[in-house]
Amino acid sequence: MSENRHIDDSTAVTDPARTRDPRAWVAPLFSTLVTLPTGLVALFFGGLSPMACDSCDGAVADGFHDSFMTAWTVLCIGLVLALIVLIATWAIPHQLRYAARRVGLALAAPTVVGVAFVAFMALVDWP
C-alpha cells in the first residue's frame, strides 16, 4: 500500500533570506546617481590641473610633471575601481540576504571616488 501524504501550504516554511527584495534597486540607483557625476567632476578637475603649471619652467615644471603623472595614474585607477564596485553593486542578486552587501558596496563606490580624488590632490606637487 502506498501512503499519500498531503502537505498543507499553510505549514510550508518559506526562508526569509531567500525571498526577493522588492527594493533592491534603490541603493544601486542612488550610488549610481552620486558616483558617476562625482567621478566625472573628479576626472574634469584632474584633467584641467596641468594648466596650473603653464607658466612654470625648469625644475618646478619637471617636479610638477613627474608628480602629476603619478597622481593621474592613481586617479584613473581609483575611478576604474569605483566603476567596478558600482557594477558589483548592481550585479548582487536581488535577495534579502544580500541587502547589507548591496548597501555596503553602494556606499563604497562614491567613497572610492572621493578617496581617489583626495589622493590625486595630495600627490601633485603644486607650484
How would you sum up this structure in a few lines?
The chain is mainly alpha-helical and 127 residues long. It has helices spanning 26-48, 59-91, 99-123. The chain has one domain (22-52, 65-123).
Your description of this structure?
By secondary structure, the chain is mainly alpha-helical. The protein has helices at residues 26-48, 59-91, 99-123. The longest helix is centred in the middle third of the chain and has 33 residues, at 59-91. The chain is rod-shaped, with a radius of gyration of 24 Å. The relative contact order is 0.20. The model has no long low-confidence stretch (mean pLDDT 89).
Main attributes of the structure:
0% strand, rod-shaped, 3 helices, mainly alpha, 127 residues
Helix-strand layout with pairing:
Elements: H1 26-48, H2 59-91, H3 99-123
Q: Which residue ranges are poorly predicted, with pLDDT under 50 across at least 5 consecutive positions?
A: none
Task: Tell me the number of structural domains.
Answer: 1
Cα end-to-end separation: 93 Å
Mean pLDDT, all residues: 89
Indicate the overall shape. rod-shaped
Strand elements, count: 0
Structural classification: mainly alpha
Q: Percentage of helical residues?
A: 55-70%
- Biggest sheet details: none
Order of helices and strands: HHH
Radius of gyration: 24 Å
Q: Which band does the percent of strand residues land in? A: under 5%
Number of H- or I-type helical stretches: 3
